[in-house]
Each structure stands twice: as structure tokens, then as C-alpha cells.
Amino acid sequence: MNKNIPARVSQEDLMRFLDGEVSPAERAAVERVLETSSELRREVALFRSMKENLQDLSLAHGDVSVWRRIRTRITMPIGWILTTTGVVAWLGYGAWAFVRSPSAIVVKLATGGVAIGILVLLAHVIWDRYKEYGTDPYRNVHR
Predict the structure, then answer these.
(1) What is the secondary structure of 35-79 as a DSSP string?
(2) 4 pLDDT tier (thresholds 50, 70, 90)
(3) Vertex 93 angle, CA 90 and 97, to 5°
(4) How distant, in Å, are the alpha carbons of 111, 118, 121, 122 from that of 115?
(5) Of 1, 39, 45, 123, which sits with the fewest C-beta atoms within 10 Å of its C-beta?
(6) pLDDT tens digits, residue range 5-20?
(7) What does the alpha-carbon distance between residue 96 and residue 6 come to, in Å, rounded to a whole number?
(8) How confident is the model over 115-125, as pLDDT tens digits?
């Protein structure tokens, strides 16, 4: 802005005014123009609102595009559904084949014990992680 009182204040000057990047003399000049122009006060209110809205935005996850979010919302559930269905079918067939096999009962009980033990340990680890997640001090730390 010029040192003289401007007849018209540009949008760039208004943004500098809102950001506090003007000298005290320029600030006083803009404020004098604002007192006389309702249109300029409306623009300042709009710019102030836009500035507040933009400051509220956070890109905590870095550069996340719309397509990446869409892909995540579609492919992740489909992947989990297919994986879970496949694992359940595979385990069902394995259990059926195991029960129908001509192996001795001792071998079947020992193998079942190992499988159940592994599942219990896995469930225990998952449960501990679930309980710890609520109190983890590093859970909101992003690289």
C-alpha cells in the first residue's frame, strides 16, 4: 500500500491486513477505509472466515489424495472380506480333512492341542494390544 490513504484497498492488502503483515500506518489507513465501506467490511469478514477455516484443516497424514482415500475405503474392506472368507474356508476344509483322516487319536489330540494353544496365545496378544492402545502415549505420533 502507498503511504497515502488508498481510494481502493486490494484483496492482497486485505489479506496482508488480516495476517498482520502491514505497518501501523498501513493498518490505520485500511481501518479508516473499512469504517466507510460496508462492502470492504463484508470482504474482510469473508476472508477472516476463510482464514479460520483453512487454519482448522490439518493434513496429519501428509499428502493424502482423494483417490487414495477412496481406494482405502473400497479396497481395504474387500481385501479383508476375501482374506477372512478364504482363511475360514481353508481352516474348515483342514479341520474336516483332519477329522476324517485315518491317523491315530493321540496324534489328532496332540495336533489339536498345539493348534488351540497357538490360537489362545494369539488371542492373548491381540487382547493385550487392544487394552494398551487406549493408554499408548505414542499412538498419535506420525512420522
Answers:
(1) HH-HHHHHHHHHHHHHHHHHHH---TTSS--HHHHHHHHHHHHHH
(2) very low
(3) 135
(4) 6, 5, 10, 11
(5) 39
(6) 445 778 888 888 888 8
(7) 87
(8) 899 999 999 99
Q: Which three cell numbers stand for residue 142?
A: 506420525
CA triplet 82, 88, 92: central angle to 5 degrees?
145
pLDDT digits (tens, 9 = 90+) for 54-104: 776 655 555 566 677 777 778 888 988 999 999 999 989 988 988 888 888
99: nearest Cα among 114, 112, 113, 89: 112
Range of the domain at 44: 11-56
What's the DSSP call for residue 17? Answer: H
What's the pTM?
0.37
Which set of grid coordinates corresponds to residue 27? 493498518
Residue 88 counted as domain residue: no
Assigned domain for 15 exists: yes
